[in-house]
Amino acid sequence: MVAAAPIVCSFPTASELTEALADFVIKAQKEAIEKKGRFTIALSGGSLPKQLSALAKRTGVKWDKWQVFYADERAVPLDHPDSNHQLCTAEFYSKVPLPPANIHTLDPALLDDLEELADAYEKQLIHEFAQKDAARFPVFDLILLGMGPDGHTASLFPGHALLSEEDRWVAYVDDSPKPPPRRITLTFPVINHAARVAFVAAGESKQDVLKTVLDKPEEGLPASRVRPASPGQLYWFVDDAAAAKVEYPKTPFKL
């Protein structure tokens, strides 16, 4: 699998990063809708939902064309404080007219059986993608990811067996080193088949791990393993505080 080199865009402030990310999402949406009439996006938790709320002030967002999935989700009720869906609802969905039917959540009736939970979520992906795109793996228009201090992304953790998963679209985790332990996650084959993947990382706390991921990819941290196959492209949206130690070349942000 041939992967293009990551494009790293660094911004003086976190607010400038947020505005550029909004521009980027709108462009990805526009191109996807022009090409196939819909926009498929996978979201993460953390600070990302709050950053996406900047889209509420933008024109040109065709919310009815969005199909939203989660890069990973915790096996908790949808209104639980640990739920990525609850976080996205509070910080993002509540501020924009995104149709609830276009938001694909896990099935809360299956929380007691992680394998069933992951299978059911994979079936949602199959319904959205396999019948329309006829691909071995779904091809998201955009996957937005964060990165933990250990280099994990989604719920793909260093040293975990899921790093070598090659077949499943959605897998479960019952031993996450970060609570809560029970989760479902998109796998690397799905992430690396996306048309665009964008990491968002800001703040001094990300300096060391960002340097490792970008300057020493051979160390194999999960975030380093995100390398979409050509013609897919990987972007990093970072602020100068996070990128202070990175030697990897930065690229001026252009739409």
From TrEMBL:
Statement: the UniProt record of this protein carries the keyword Hydrolase: yes
UniProt keyword annotations, A-Z: Hydrolase
GO molecular function, one term: 6-phosphogluconolactonase activity
Catalytic activity line of the entry: 6-phospho-D-glucono-1,5-lactone + H2O = 6-phospho-D-gluconate + H(+)
Pathway: Carbohydrate degradation; pentose phosphate pathway; D-ribulose 5-phosphate from D-glucose 6-phosphate (oxidative stage): step 2/3
Entries under InterPro entries matching the protein: 6-phosphogluconolactonase_DevB, 6PGL, Glc/Gal-6P_isomerase, NagB/RpiA_transferase-like
One Gene Ontology term from the biological process aspect of the record: carbohydrate metabolic process
Recorded superkingdom: Eukaryota
EC number: 3.1.1.31
CDD domains cross-referenced by the UniProt entry: 6PGL
Domain Glucosamine/galactosamine-6-phosphate isomerase: 13-236
A Pfam short name: Glucosamine_iso
PANTHER family with a match to the protein in the record: 6-PHOSPHOGLUCONOLACTONASE
Protein's job: Hydrolysis of 6-phosphogluconolactone to 6-phosphogluconate.
Family the entry assigns: Belongs to the glucosamine/galactosamine-6-phosphate isomerase family. 6-phosphogluconolactonase subfamily.
The protein, known as: 6-phosphogluconolactonase
Biological source species: Gloeophyllum trabeum (strain ATCC 11539 / FP-39264 / Madison 617) (Brown rot fungus)
